[in-house]
Design a protein that fits this description.
There is one protein chain. The protein is an alpha/beta fold. It has one domain: 3-Layer(aba) Sandwich (Rossmann fold), CATH 3.40.50. About 35% of the residues lie in helices and about 20% in strands. It contains 5 helices and 7 strands; from the N terminus they run E-H-E-E-H-E-H-E-H-E-H-E. The longest helix is centred in the C-terminal third of the chain and has 23 residues. About 45% of the residues are buried. The mean pLDDT is about 95.
């Protein structure tokens, strides 16, 4: 799909970097955000094939600038993957994991950056589910629960704007965050998410999905 384009927000390592590689392997034009363009982390070896954008999702001014820069990009898919885990104050967890994804996607939709019938995906976690959850994860799970709640409030308006929008649990993945004993590889998760998003149907809009295509309870 050489004419298709994707924006992956939060892509310097882990699942974000895996998604960049997956979409590149399928022939997509890839836009990817990193906090420092001079230090793109795990994207170093593919940086010349990707359009890199500097972005710290906490910086509202920069979010709005990026939305304007991409106003004519006609993005077919947007994936908001940026997030933080343990070891951060509660307020920062909420700002990065709960508030920033909604704010960033809204800015991109408002600027016209998303193609007609485009797809928007926010990376959440099963730890943010209010039922069907395996254990608890303190502030992190709470921040993802807030994200899910905010997404459900926005889903109808985003759908009216032409987007098919979902939240995704990427699995327990072998990353710095997930640890070496996690059962799902980055490659498996990225491939599953690719298949889900590129085959998304209108009736799947507004719902909570897992990386392997199963619907997850809220």
């Amino acid at each position: 799909m050489s004419n298709a384009s994707v924006l992956i927000i939060g892509s310097s390592r882990g699942i974000g970097a895996g998604l960049v590689r997956e979409f590149l392997s399928r022939g997509w034009q890839v836009h990817a955000t990193v906090r420092d363009k001079d230090s793109p982390g795990d994207l170093e070896d593919v940086a010349d094939r990707v359009t890199l954008h500097q972005l710290d999702v906490r910086d509202v001014s920069r979010v709005n600038e990026l939305a304007k820069e991409l106003a004519d990009a006609d993005l077919n898919v947007i994936i908001h993957n940026a997030g933080i885990y343990r070891g951060h104050p509660e307020a920062e967890l909420i700002e990065v994991n709960s508030v920033a994804p909604i704010r960033t996607v809204q800015a991109l939709l408002d600027s016209g950056a998303v193609a007609a019938d485009g797809v928007v995906a926010l990376m959440t976690s099963q730890l943010g589910a209010r039922r069907g959850r395996e254990g608890t994860e303190g502030g992190y799970g709470g921040s993802k629960a807030r994200l899910n709640d905010s997404f459900r409030e926005r889903a109808d308006s985003w759908g009216s704007a032409g987007a098919k929008a979902v939240v995704i649990h990427p699995g327990w993945v072998r990353t710095d965050m997930g640890g070496a004993t996690a059962p799902v590889s980055v490659e498996e998760s990225a491939a599953g998410i690719y298949d889900l998003l590129t085959n998304l149907t209108p009736d799947q809009h507004g719902r909570f999905w897992t990386w392997d295509g199963r619907e997850h309870p809220w």
